[in-house]
Amino acid sequence: MLRTFLQDRRGNFAMMTALLMAPVMGVLALAVDYTQMTRQRQMTLNALDAAGIATARRISDGATQAEAEAYAEDFFRANLGAVKPENATLHVLLPNDNTGGGTLKLTADLKYAPIFFPVFQSLRGEAPDGVQKIDFRAESEIRLKNTLEVALVLDNSGSMDFTGTGSTEKRMTVLKKAAKELVKTIANEGAQMKQISKPVQFGLVPFAGAVNVGPQNDGASWMDTDGRSPTHHENFDWDSMKNADANKRVEKSGGVYYKRGTGWKDQENAKVTRFTLYDDIKRITGYTTEWGCASYYSNGTCRYEGWIQKEVHGPFASWGGCVEMRPYPYNLNDVSPASSKPETYFVPMFAPDETNLTDGGRPANNNWWPDISTSNAANRQAYMPKYFVAQSKSAMGLNEGPNAGCTTKPITPLTDVSNAAGLDKINKAIDAMQPSGSTNVTEGLAWGWRVVSSGEPFTEGRSENENGNDKVVIVLTDGANTYYTPSSVTAYSYSGGNYNYGGNDLAGTHSLYSNYGYAVAKFRTIANRIFDGTANISKSDYSNSNYSAAMTQHMAAACENAKAGRIIMMTVALDLKLNDAAEKKQIDALKACASESRTRKDADGKPEKLFWNATGGNLDQKFKEIGDELSNLRIVG
User: How far apart are CA 510 and CA 540, in angstroms?
Assistant: First the structure.
């Protein structure tokens, strides 16, 4: 009996079952709670994804921040399924509120109340302490279908005709190839976004010493068509008109200059601007004979008639499309022109005819019309009656005569390159670029900003407040900013004399005429533009190096203003050397100008600068890297 009792295991099973009940139930409780928690987390993620996609569409349609947040909240809660809305808290990070650029990030904090876990604690003899909850977080991030607007601001100065370092081709040739490949790459990506209008737009701003806005804009509302800007009549002595002929005067009235006196005949009371001056300068193209009054009495009546010879006049030059820099601070920003501030208008470039006088055989740099004044060089230059006397001259075009310093092709405004016609237009504009002239990077990047902006002068850009749109300005230059003294460069060959030995400065301008005007100008009513707005720059040092230093300060200020206006700045130094002091300054300035990358980081984990130091030999590779950066701005989530 004792042996039978010892071998009987029926009671052990019940006892073992009792002993194992707590851990078995605990495992089951944890399994059930884990399954339920995973299910609720997935429901929360599904609700986040649905809310993200729906809210992204609302943002693309122009919803305000408050509207987008409210819509996301409603959509999220409506799709939570079995998850109790009171247990889920939604957080919305809109594209304008993060540093990623163009991403919508939704996160949810979820409080899960376990079902069986408290029972398990009781079985273990533990008293549950308070409300039992498990907190977790779910996230969903969507990159919006970004649109992209890019201004290519490309150096067209004379040095771009040099052979590129590490290349057998000229810098301009290499640049054209790289630029067209960049546009093609991004255009192909944009063409895939069928549901969005103008997904990718490119504009082109060729720059040298000035920027050409296009002669077709001579009547644009943003041009100074009435001559009201304080810089419009610099270097023009309109009083010299009445001193020469009281019946052929130019007088100012209400801020505008007018032709006064009977000497103007049918043009009396017409306004006078640089535009009209281009029209008024005539060249003699031939002669004709006609019957008419051959002699007059003192009272103006005809004494006798006869055959008389008359000059046949033709146009001498028309405005080429280049504009001067606006006075500070408007030369460094994107403020749209307004009638209440005439200084915000853009003034056409007009290079005054310089004196016939020579200095040691050296002519003035740009002597293109005969003097009819016998005064000193400065007065001869500003003497206006000479422009109204026709001369036997050949017609002049860009970069000569009154268009001296205007060397570039016109701006191409933003153009949709996701279609063949737009892509072809940009490619042709790139192919048309020609190297000539000096370098003014500040003016180039300022116009790049104006091209991608939505306000005048160019209005093709989307609103600055539109979500999911990036505005990019890519600036490439192969040299430092330049502005020259008259004797430091070769004069124009038509100026006469020993032009190869540099121009003279008998008029005391201390510079060539450029889109800054002259360093020292007669009848100037505002501060000197080359130095205005600079710090720690001598205002009396009229040297090329001091001019470059002032211009580089302007460039830095324009860059910071553009970035503050949410413009993404990308900069490229082409064939600039770090071991050259002047070129290193330009490299440093270009790097400082660049924005920070949204995707690339350096070895220290900091965002890399969107700056590329390129040579002629690797420019195509650098532009591919720029293309990758532009592509990252347009990733579709």
Answer: 10
Question: How does strand 567-574 pair with strand 147-155?
Answer: unpaired
Judge whether 461 and 334 are in contact, CB under 8 Å: no
468 in Cβ contact with 145 (< 8 Å): yes
Q: How far is residue 104 from each of residues 47, 54, 113, 169, measured CA to CA in Å?
A: 14, 11, 29, 45
Alpha-carbon gap, residue 546 to 272, rounded angstroms: 35
CA-based max dimension of the chain: 168
CB 619 within 8 A of CB 612: no
Single-letter code of the amino acid located at 79: N
Separation of alpha carbons 158 and 499, rounded Å: 19
Listed residue (345, 322, 351, 321) closest to 230, CA to CA: 345
CB distance 59 to 142 below 8 Å: no
pLDDT tens, position by position, 334-363 = 999 999 999 999 999 999 999 999 999 999
Indicate the domain borders of the chain.
Answer: 10-143, 147-214+399-480+535-633, 216-327+338-356
* The two structure tokens encoding residue 433: 């670029």
| Residues 128, 150: Cα–Cα separation, whole Å | 62
Q: Are strands 147-155 and 469-477 parallel, antiparallel or unpaired?
A: parallel
Please give the DSSP secondary-structure letter assigned to residue 169.
Answer: S
Q: What is the pLDDT of residues 126-172, one digit of tens each?
A: 555 544 556 778 788 776 657 899 999 999 999 999 999 999 999 99
pLDDT at 447 over 80: yes
Determine the residue type at 460: E
- CA distance linking residue 178 with residue 591, whole number of Å: 20
For residues 155 and 476, the answer to whether their CB atoms sit within 8 Å is yes
Q: Does domain 147-214+399-480+535-633 have CATH number 3.30.160.270?
A: no
Compute how many other C-beta atoms are within 10 angstroms of the C-beta atom of residue 294: 12
- State pLDDT tens for residues 84-119: 888 788 888 877 655 434 578 889 888 866 665 555
Average pLDDT, the chain: 88
Q: What angle do CA 38, 40, 45 make, to 5 degrees?
A: 95
In whole angstroms, what is the distance from residue 173 CA to residue 30 CA?
Answer: 70
Q: What is the DSSP string of 517-544?
A: B-SS-TT--S--TTTTT-SS--SS--SH
Who wins on pLDDT, 160 or 605? Answer: 160
Q: Determine the Cα–Cα distance for residues 190 and 206; give it in Å rounded to an integer.
A: 24
Cβ pair 245, 385 in contact under 8 A: yes
